[in-house]
Design brief:
Length: 525
C-alpha cells in the first residue's frame, strides 16, 4: 500500500479551497455580489416555502369545504327519499336505488368527485364500482390487478371517519371524507366523498415554476446591480489604495478629490485620509527641519573646537596662555553641546508616560523660593505679583524648569541693570492657574508669535547663539505644558515687551483664599 504524498495532498487541499479563498480574498465587488446572492437565495427560499405550503393548505381547505357540502347533499337526498316513502319509512333497497341513481349522475374521474354510500342490508352504491370491488373483473385484467383493486376497496371501507388522504392508481392523491348518518334512527348509512388533489399539485407546481423563473431573473438582476454598486463604491477605495501605495513609496503630495455631501462616508474617509496626509507632510517637514537644525547646532560648536585645535596644533611650542584660552573655549563649546543633547533628550522623553512625577505643591512658598533663586542669576529688575493660596497638582521639577526657561528668555531679551522681568500668578476659571512672565524688551512681532515655541526657532539667531542658547527652551516649556494637559501662549505688553503665558490645571484654592475672593467681589446690581 503506497503512502500518500503529503505534497500532492497539500496541493489537492489548496485546489479544493481555492474558490472559497478567491471569494474571501477577492475585491469588494465580488464579496458584495456573493453576499447579495446568498441573501436573495435565503429570502427566496423562505418566501417560496411559505407561499408553496400556504397555497396547498388553502386549496385543501377549499376541497374539504366542497367535500363536506357534497356529503351533506347526498345525505339530504337520502332523507328526502325516506320522507317520500309510504309511512315515512323507506326500505334499505329503496335507499340503495336512490343512492345509486344520485351517484351515477356524477361519474368519477381525475378531476371529479368520488361518491359512495354503504347501506346496511343493501350493499354499496358508488360512481366508481371498480374502486370498491363491486364490478366484475375485466377480461384483460390480471389477477394481480384485481387483487390490488380489492385491497384499495378494503382500505376505503376501513378508513376512519373524517378527512383522510389516500393514494390511488391513475388518480394520485385523493382527499376523502367519510361520514356516518342516521336515517330515521334505524339505519346508519356510511357516506363517502372524495376529490383528487391533482389541482393542488398543479397549482403548487405552477408556483414552483413561476418562482424559479422569477427568482432566476431577480437574482440575475440583483447580482448585476450589486456588482455595479460594488464597483461604484470600491472605485474611490481603489483610488485611495493607489494613492496610499504612492505615499508608501515616499510621495506625500497626492490627495484624494472626492465629490459628495458632508455626510457621505466615502467623502468623510477621503477628507480624513487627506488630513492624515497633511499631518504626515507637516510631520516629515518638521522632522527634516529638526534634523537640519540639530545638525547645524551641533556643527557650530564642533567647528569652533576643530578650528581652535588646529590653531593650537599649528604651533610647535604654544604658550601656556594660548593653551588655557583654547581649553576654555573647548570647555564652553562642550558644555553647549551637552546642554543641547540634554534638551533634545528631554523633548524626546516628554512624549513618554513616565515623563511627569506629579505631586501636591504648596503654590505660594514654591513660587517665592523659585523666583528668589532666579533673581540671583542676572542683573535685572525682578518683580513678583501676589500668589493665590492653594495647592497645585504638578511635577515640581518640570514646572520649575518651565518657569526658569520663561525667565531666561525674558532675561536674554532685556538689558541690565533695569530690565524688567515680572512673574504674575493668578487663578483662572475652574481649577486652572496661569503663570505670566513679562518683560520690557523689544517684544515679539505678530507673525513670529505662533512659532516661538517651535524647536530651534529664534527671533534673533545671532544674539541667541552668542548667549549660549540652544533654541529649545520655549519648546521644552510647551512640552511640559502639554504633558500637564495645559497650554502656552504669547502676548504683548501694553507698554512694549513680550508676555509669555503658561496655564496648568489641577489648582485647588485654600479656604482663606476663597473667602477673601468672595469679600473682594463687587456687589451685583
Amino acid at each position: 500500500m503506497r503512502a500518500e504524498d503529503p505534497t500532492a495532498a497539500g496541493r489537492h487541499r489548496r485546489r479544493d479551497a481555492r474558490p472559497w479563498d478567491r471569494l474571501r480574498n477577492g475585491g469588494l465587488r465580488w464579496r458584495l455580489t456573493a453576499w447579495v446572492a446568498v441573501v436573495m437565495l435565503l429570502f427566496a427560499a423562505v418566501i417560496f416555502v411559505a407561499v408553496y405550503r400556504g397555497t396547498g393548505t388553502e386549496l385543501r381547505h377549499q376541497i374539504d369545504h366542497e367535500l363536506a357540502g357534497d356529503a351533506g347533499e347526498l345525505a339530504h337526498n337520502l332523507e328526502l327519499v325516506e320522507r317520500a316513502a309510504p309511512g315515512g319509512r323507506a326500505s334499505a333497497h329503496t335507499l340503495s336505488l336512490a343512492a345509486t341513481r344520485y351517484v351515477n349522475d356524477q361519474p368519477f374521474g381525475a378531476s371529479s368527485t368520488l361518491l359512495f354510500a354503504i347501506i346496511p342490508g343493501a350493499g354499496t352504491s358508488t360512481n366508481q364500482p371498480e374502486l370498491l370491488g363491486n364490478a366484475a373483473p375485466d377480461n384483460d385484467e390480471s389477477t394481480a390487478e384485481q387483487d390490488q383493486e380489492n385491497h384499495l376497496a378494503q382500505r376505503v371501507l376501513s378508513v376512519h371517519d373524517g378527512y383522510s388522504t389516500m393514494d390511488f392508481p391513475d388518480v394520485g392523491d385523493l382527499r376523502l371524507l367519510k361520514r356516518r348518518v342516521s336515517i330515521d334512527s334505524r339505519l346508519r348509512v356510511t357516506i363517502g366523498v372524495g376529490e383528487p388533489l391533482a389541482a393542488v399539485h398543479e397549482a403548487q407546481h405552477g408556483i414552483a415554476q413561476a418562482f424559479i423563473l422569477a427568482g432566476a431573473l431577480a437574482l440575475a438582476a440583483a447580482l448585476l446591480a450589486s456588482y455595479l454598486v460594488g464597483a461604484r463604491v470600491s472605485l474611490p477605495l481603489r483610488r485611495m489604495a493607489t494613492i496610499a501605495a504612492r505615499v508608501d513609496a515616499g510621495e506625500l503630495e497626492p490627495r484624494i478629490h472626492e465629490t459628495g455631501g458632508p455626510g457621505d462616508e466615502v467623502r468623510v474617509l477621503a477628507d480624513a485620509f487627506n488630513h492624515m496626509l497633511d499631518r504626515l507632510s507637516a510631520a516629515f517637514a518638521g522632522q527634516r527641519a529638526f534634523v537640519a537644525d540639530a545638525s547645524h547646532e551641533l556643527r557650530t560648536p564642533l567647528t569652533v573646537i576643530r578650528g581652535q585645535l588646529e590653531v593650537l596644533s599649528a604651533q610647535s611650542d604654544p604658550p601656556i596662555e594660548e593653551v588655557r584660552r583654547v581649553e576654555r573655549l573647548v570647555q564652553a563649546e562642550v558644555s553647549r553641546i551637552t546642554r543641547l543633547v540634554d534638551d533634545l533628550l528631554l523633548l524626546a522623553k516628554s512624549e513618554e508616560t513616565q515623563f511627569l512625577h506629579v505631586q501636591t505643591i504648596d503654590l505660594r512658598p514654591y513660587i517665592e523660593d523659585l523666583w528668589d533663586g532666579m533673581s540671583l542669576t542676572a542683573d535685572r529688575h525682578f518683580e513678583l505679583s501676589s500668589i493665590p493660596d492653594g495647592t497645585l497638582q504638578a511635577d515640581p521639577d518640570r514646572l520649575a524648569q518651565a518657569l526658569r526657561n520663561l525667565a531666561r528668555n525674558a532675561i536674554e531679551h532685556t538689558s541690565a541693570p533695569r530690565g524688567l522681568v515680572r512673574l504674575d500668578v493668578a487663578q483662572t476659571a475652574g481649577d486652572r492657574v496661569r503663570f505670566v512672565v513679562a518683560d520690557d524688551g523689544p517684544g515679539i512681532v505678530a507673525d513670529q508669535r505662533e512659532m516661538v515655541f517651535e524647536r530651534f526657532h529664534r527671533t534673533d539667531a545671532a544674539r541667541d547663539r552668542a548667549s549660549g542658547g540652544t533654541g529649545l527652551g520655549l519648546a521644552i516649556v510647551r512640552a511640559i505644558a502639554l504633558a500637564h494637559a495645559g497650554r502656552v501662549s504669547v502676548g504683548e505688553q501694553p507698554g512694549g515687551g513680550a508676555k509669555l503665558e503658561l496655564e496648568l490645571p489641577g489648582f485647588t484654592a485654600s479656604r482663606s483664599h476663597e473667602q477673601s475672593a468672595e469679600l473682594t467681589e463687587p456687589p451685583t446690581r
